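Crash report, auto-generated. Payload:
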Amino acid sequence: MARANLLERLHTIQDTYGYIPENEINKLSDQFDLPRSKVYGTIKFYSMFYTEPTGKYMVRVCDSLSCHLNDSEGLVTAVKNYLGIADGETTEDKKFTLEVVECLGHCGEGPVMMVNDQIYTYLNENRAIQILKDCM
Amino acid sequence: MATALIDGQQVDFESGETILEAAEKVQIKIPTLCHAEDLSIYGGCRICVVEIEGERLLKPACATKISEGMKIKTHSPKVREVRRNIFELIVASHDISCRLNCLTCSRNQSCELREIAADIGANQTRFDPIDKGYDDDRSSVSIVREPNKCITCGRCIRKCEEVQGVGIFTMANRGPATVLTTFGDKGMGNVECTNCGQCIHACPTGALHEVYHYDRVWDMLKDEDKFVVVQTAPAVRVALAELFESKPGTIVTGQMVAGLKRLGFDRVFDTNFAADLTIMEEGTELIGRIEDGGPFPMFTSCSPGWIKYIEHFYPEYLENLSSCKSPQQMFGAVAKSYYAQQHGIDKEDMVVVSVMPCTAKKFESGRGEMDQDVDFVLTTRELGRMVKEAGIDLVNLAEEDYDPMMGESTGAGSIFGSSGGVMEAALRTAYELITEEELEELDFEPVRGAEGIKEAEVEIKGMTVKTAVASGLSNVGQLLEKIKNGEEYHFVEMMACPGGCIGGGGQPIPTNQETVEERMKAIYEIDAGKKKRKSHQNKEVQQLYEDYLGAPNSHLAHELLHTNYIKREI
Ligand code: SF4
Ligand code: SF4
Ligand code: SF4
Ligand code: FES
Ligand code: FES
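Recovered output after restart:
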């Protein structure tokens, strides 16, 4: 099977399970005749793939240039502290996964945070934490 | 002329000579820093301190005159420790920013970064080293990975994938966060790594090296209650000298034996003896399979990298493997039974150390099936390091012989170290055992040489025995695919490392095509120079059967010298 299809397959698996389970990596490595380390490396190269189950709420906070100028750094710190996890981690209760990301496309309205498909703009720390509280 | 004892060696000296000068005459090197031959004696750095019996304080060898009857220890554990402390103080007193620890790095003799720095005339380092803060990967019993020394050059990735056909490493993440890792970040010991060590040879830095056993071997040598025996693999004697600035392919068998005796091993034995023994067992097994009609092909089983490879990737062929343990393990089993019994040594007090060209042997010795018959495995590089630490000028030592009972070997045992050697040794013996006629042409040229896959057909008593030989795991994989697709052989030799053990993961750096070819020539030179070139001619092996084992493949032989394998997951 062509390697280009690998990404497509990874997307499908990610959408089905919310992450890429180990046994799926083993299957892909068989089908694509690649060492499983290579499949793993591909997954790790792209930030949209996960090798661990993610939380119910995917929290993405932008830390690209424009948002950074609007103190997204403070926002990132506040969210991290509130959830008690670092970038890329999932809370123990499997509710939240945090991702610090590049540009979410609302650069004029920063700082910006996304929870699942919902965009929140012009945030400050208190509002962000209130949004997360409302998810509970 | 007066005499004194330095490290147990008697030395004659003229009055006025220093301990340092006298030590050189008996091939003992004492490290020096502030001393230089054409300058007056200073005695300031004290890196050259030695122990003199009856004196409370250590004395600097460069500044102390030797006198009649002195008993001097130049490299006792105490001296070595004090020297290290002194050295640390010297280094600490300098403004050396040694964040990466070049001084203690596994590659301090062979670092390519340092080579390049010299080649390009680098004369400043303006940036502070970045502390990446990764943990070392110590999950493997054979290999350590130190990611903080990794420059993410990817050479190990390609070596493992392209030359070994395994593919353990990958890059993860992007940009400055890029890091070399294994599947699922599990570590080398928790994935399908074969422990072959070829990635070490690929790495330009100290990011990959073997799991060291030498410090524990020092402890054993110090322990007077232990009876410490050592065995040396066939490929070590043709490579060890490279660590002492000699040409690749220099043969130092006798010097190595002498060096091991000076290090304090109670007995110095030869893995080549066990290789001859392996041929008796494996040859008999092959003849048995020929009589029983299979299962074919029979695969050799002396390369633990190959064994782990087949256990992971081709478990459906496990019954094709010879049930023979490797020579290293046969040696251990025989030493701890036969030798121990004959000499009234308690098995528990015996320590078996191997010197191997191989990192996978460390894993093999710890396999549950092996019963702790081999306690420690040193690579060729580790032995070199111990010899240096003891101040022994190895290549200039007078040659000595292996100890009797497990020290004799034939030419057949010697060539085990090269790809094709096990095949050739087995054919020499199988031919004579089957036909009961003398084999006239001993050299099986088609299975010799550095090619990755070799094939040969041999006529034995009207039967055409089809054989194949592969070295380097991607060649091994190719040959297995051929077999899967219906190609038929009777006997197949597989070795994990390109060129066989002479190219093993524990050999001196650099190990490349050139050095492997030189070492190979030396191996066949040893064989050609032997009066006896067939394993069944080995008198000590015959004696072992007579006194202890009975016959090849006997019940006791099976118990001690044979093993079984397990299917491993990927
Ligand atoms: S690999 Fe790094 S630490 Fe080791 S000798 Fe080279 S520069 Fe120094
Ligand atoms: S030891 Fe061999 S199999 Fe394991 S990572 Fe290194 S090259 Fe690959
Ligand atoms: S070869 Fe060595 S330096 Fe290069 S990527 Fe591998 S571990 Fe890192
Ligand atoms: S920079 Fe934050 S949304 Fe574009
Ligand atoms: S050597 Fe050419 S890019 Fe690395």
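Post-recovery validation: The mean pLDDT of chain A is 91.
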